[in-house]
Amino acid sequence: MSRDTPPTVVGGLDLATLSASQRRVVTDLLEVTDPRPAPDPDRPRRLRDLIEGQLAPVLEQRAVDAPRIRLGKTQLDALACDGRYLDQQRTPFSWSRPIVRGQLVHSAIALDHHVGRGESTAELLAHAWEEFRHSGDGHLAYAETLTDLEVTSLQADASTAVEEYRATFPRLPQTWRVVWEPTIVARFGAGAVTVRGKPDLVLGRVSPDQRRMLLIDLKTGNRSRTDRQDMRWYALLATLKYRTAPFKVGTFYIDEGRWDDEVVTDDVLEAAARGMVGRLITAIRLTDDPVARQLHAGPMCRWCGLAESCEEKQRADAEYAATTAQPG
Fold first, then answer.
1. Distances in Å between the alpha carbon of 34 and those of 26, 31, 163, 280, 316?
2. N or C: which end of the chain has fewer CB within 10 A?
3. Nearest-angstrom CA–CA distance, 202 and 198
């Protein structure tokens, strides 16, 4: 091979065996051949100090027996509007076909990696469905509402997404460190507030001299305005847990075979920390005094049970109608 000929095997991946889409993932999203940045050992402490410092005066005003607050990504996103957050807190979770489909797709993709893509998608989805059914009483109760034909249709729908993932995302070598859906937890104020995240995929080992981690979320369906912010939450939580920041985060959209990624810089992490502490303070306020609401109309109104009676939603709708009205 000539010196000028680019290598066909990078990071254990043979580019010659990959589709054009898969090769682009390797070079542009995974950045297999690019050097990794050096870590800043003081960054995790600075971020935690920022969050703890802004939370402290708020927590000091709470009653000794005030309830502890536990938030995940969904709750953090909902805190963009007090009404949406309160509605979400009061509404019991229920399974739906799109949510279950997403669960099956993620479970099948994770299993697909572990078996080296050696099983058919039908077998993967059958196993994923059985795992789902036996994961809890709520899962089993939902499963019992479906007919055999509906289960088959659900598995076939999810199987299509897995096939599309295979076509656009390379098979990852078994020698790589690949962790599926790790739970990342950060506690603040001596446990008064807990934030929990679960990115779909973490690639790369924690290293003392390089930032090697890449966090990826896999999405089916449409893009959301919160996707990039969600990945910043994950980057912040990972930095606090592992004491070193990931070098990049990304959201991979299976239906498109494309992604949105972002290099994790000091500015990105500080923005995530300031945004998170603002929402934590809002959660504390709403937990202690749910009557004082600050409402903000936006895309999440589509899922909010309070939308029909929300004055802010009505105001925003009227304003939108006025700006889009055609002259007579």
1. 11, 5, 29, 36, 46
2. C
3. 10
Nearest to 272 by CA among 191, 193, 163, 195: 195
Contact present, 110 and 126 (Cβ < 8 Å): no
- Per-residue pLDDT 10s for the chain (328 aa) are 445 555 688 888 999 999 999 999 999 999 998 999 999 999 999 999 999 999 999 999 999 999 999 999 999 999 999 999 999 999 888 999 999 999 999 999 999 999 999 999 999 999 999 999 999 989 999 999 999 999 999 999 999 999 999 999 999 998 999 999 999 999 999 999 999 999 999 999 999 999 999 999 999 988 999 999 999 999 999 999 999 999 999 999 999 999 999 999 999 999 999 999 999 999 999 999 988 778 788 777 887 888 888 878 878 877 767 777 655 5
Dist. CA 172–CA 222, nearest whole Å: 25
Residues 46 and 194: their CA atoms lie apart, in Å, by 19
Q: Let me know how many helices (H) and strands (E) the chain has, helices first.
A: 11, 10
Q: Which residues of 148-161 are buried (b: 16+ CB within 10 A; e: fewer)?
A: eeebeebbebbbbb
How far apart CA 33 and CA 27 sit, in angstroms, is 7
Place of tokens 């809890």: 136
Query: 0.85 cut: is pTM over it?
Result: yes
